[in-house]
Design a protein that fits this description.
single chain, 3% helix
């Protein structure tokens, strides 16, 4: 018998399609009590052909002069369960893709929901938080009782590929999660337990990969929400994580004499690689008719891990206050945020970063003709000495500021409408370290003026724009100015749409000037209900006389397609 990688399996076309349909079988929260109302069988999708041509001069061609693509997308539905699949054939590659290539279903009956196959479920932010697993589960919510249980494989073993020296094998990882609580969506308290572990026997020749060690994780969390009134709500979650990063590490002598740890070791391995970390999140929200505010505190220990989640931004503690108020009969909206943040919670880093994050936003709409949005943010980062003295020349003490202002004018009439929008964006980084003034400072200014005209009866849209960009840094200043214009036309029934747009950019990079011209044509024509023809073409002309920044070149690409929809 050969290995799975040595076996060759042949399928007939019909068997292949049947197998892939089964692999794509996916149903989400199907209501079994309404099954009789579902259509027994339904199919829909499209078949498309694309012919692509390409030509370039001055640069190496990025694609073939002529290519084609045949593709099909279809979704088969049986009593509400969807089975989508797609097929692509071209002169470049041939592939069969499954947008949902994992079988899974979550049928629901009244207050009971069952999970089977590939699922991702969220019990809380710090425990089971959307990690995909293959297994089974159940969620029961009869009245005030809240119950959840899942068991499955969170990761399957994969071998290292000899052809790629940087690949590592993975262990099979299985786990179980349990949630028991009481309450409703407005007031509840949930106790959550999670245990996930690697199978140390699922990787052959483990001594060949000493850095890859089997791990085990046990997480317990308390998640709660209290709604005191329509105005005031409180959310909190606290979780603790025991992580043994190497199940084969040396044990801890004397563990049997510590009562609680001795009992814990019966279902969880505790050794010299075991660590304990915590995560806390609390939010107090207050909201009345015209005013709201939110106070949030979050603290996540360095190295906090839950194998039921993919990622945590850890070693961080922050406190944030975010108020907002509506004035002048809701024509003026003011919102802001002020946050304090720090890291190095266990004093293990060389330096501690203290950050201040503040932002303010204004939205003013006095009439249907005029409105303006403005935002300002300031981000400050100041390092302090951690476990060792901090060298002043390497100390980071910077401030990032961003300003956005976007006024607009809108004139709407029965025959035509006009819109003028000005967008101003200014970003800057200030280096406050006296030993490195200006070394890290940068400033960027972006200015865009756009005009749009819609001729309603003719179904014509015309656009025009001006733009300017300036980027200044220690290395010098770069500038760019540009203009753009476009026009599109469509028929009332939407059967025909055509558009043409172009832009011209004058750039100055390191005092070297050049121009970039772009043009595009797009059109679509629908014949009856099921047939659609599309054509698009894109042209680029880049001119830099000395060729130091970029070579001068011309590039043309076109795409003609036909789509049959069923």
């Amino acid at each position: 018998m050969g290995t799975p990688y040595q076996k060759k399996i042949l399928f007939t076309p019909a068997a292949t399609v049947l197998l892939l349909l089964l692999m794509n079988f996916n149903g989400i929260a199907q209501q079994l009590d309404n099954l009789k109302t579902q259509k027994p069988f339904k199919i829909g999708g499209s078949v498309a052909t694309n012919f692509i041509f390409y030509n370039a001069s001055g640069i190496s061609e990025r694609m073939k002069p002529f290519s084609y693509v045949l593709s099909a997308n279809a979704t088969v539905s049986v009593y509400g369960f969807s089975m989508p699949f797609s097929f692509t054939y071209s002169d470049r590659q041939r592939n069969y893709s499954q947008p949902f290539n994992q079988f899974g279903m979550s049928p629901t009956y009244k207050w009971a929901k069952f999970h089977l196959g590939y699922r991702n479920i969220n019990f809380s932010d710090f425990t089971l938080a959307g990690h995909t697993f293959l297994g089974a589960g159940v969620e029961l919510n009869p009245g005030k009782f809240r119950f959840g249980f899942v068991y499955g494989r969170f990761k399957r073993s994969t071998p290292a590929f000899p052809q790629a020296i940087d690949t590592m094998p993975d262990f099979t990882r299985k786990g179980i999660a349990l949630k028991i609580g009481v309450g409703s969506s407005k007031n509840f308290a949930d106790l959550i337990l999670l245990k996930i572990a690697d199978d140390s026997a699922s990787v052959s020749n483990p001594l060949q990969y000493p850095s890859r060690t089997p791990a085990q994780n046990f997480v317990t969390g308390l998640n709660t929400r209290l709604t005191f009134s329509k105005k005031l709500t409180f959310d909190a979650e606290i979780a603790g994580s025991l992580l043994t990063s190497d199940l084969k590490a040396a044990g801890i002598s004397g563990l049997e004499n510590i009562g609680i740890l001795n009992k814990t070791s019966r279902f969880f391995t505790v050794n010299q690689s075991t660590s304990f970390t915590t995560a806390i999140r609390t939010t107090l929200a207050y909201k009345v008719k015209l005013f709201s505010t939110r106070l949030e505190y979050r603290r996540i220990d360095p190295g906090y891990t839950s194998m039921g989640a993919y990622f945590f931004n850890n070693d961080i503690e922050n406190l944030t206050l975010a108020p907002s108020v509506s004035l002048l009969k809701r024509k003026l909206l003011l919102r802001g945020s002020l946050g304090l943040q720090r890291d190095n919670l266990r004093k293990t880093k060389k330096a501690t970063s203290l950050r201040t994050i503040s932002s303010m936003g204004i939205s003013f709409n006095p009439s249907s003709i005029f409105g303006v949005d403005a935002n300002y943010s300031n981000y400050s980062n100041n390092q302090r000495a951690g476990r060792i003295p901090l060298v002043d020349s390497l100390k980071q003490y910077t401030t990032n500021r961003t300003i956005n202002i976007a006024p607009r004018l809108v004139f709407a009439h029965a025959t035509a409408s006009h819109m003028i929008v000005l967008m101003f964006n200014q970003m800057g980084l200030t280096d406050k370290n006296p030993l490195s003034p200006g070394m890290a400072e940068t400033d960027a200014t972006l200015l865009n003026l756009n005009y749009a005209l819609n001729l309603n009866k003719l179904m014509v849209s015309i656009t025009a724009g001006l733009n300017h960009t300036t980027l200044s840094s220690f290395a010098g200043q770069n500038k760019a100015n540009g203009v753009s214009a476009g026009i599109s036309r469509s028929l009332k029934d939407g059967r025909f749409i055509a558009g043409f747009s172009n832009s011209l950019q004058w750039a100055e990079v390191q005092k070297i000037r050049g121009t970039i011209y772009n043009a595009s044509v797009n059109s679509s024509f629908r014949l009856k209900k099921h047939h659609t023809f599309r054509f698009s073409a894109y042209y680029t002309k880049s001119t830099y006389p000395d060729g130091f920044i970029s070579p001068s070149f011309n590039e043309l690409k076109g795409d003609l397609s036909y789509v049959f929809t069923f």
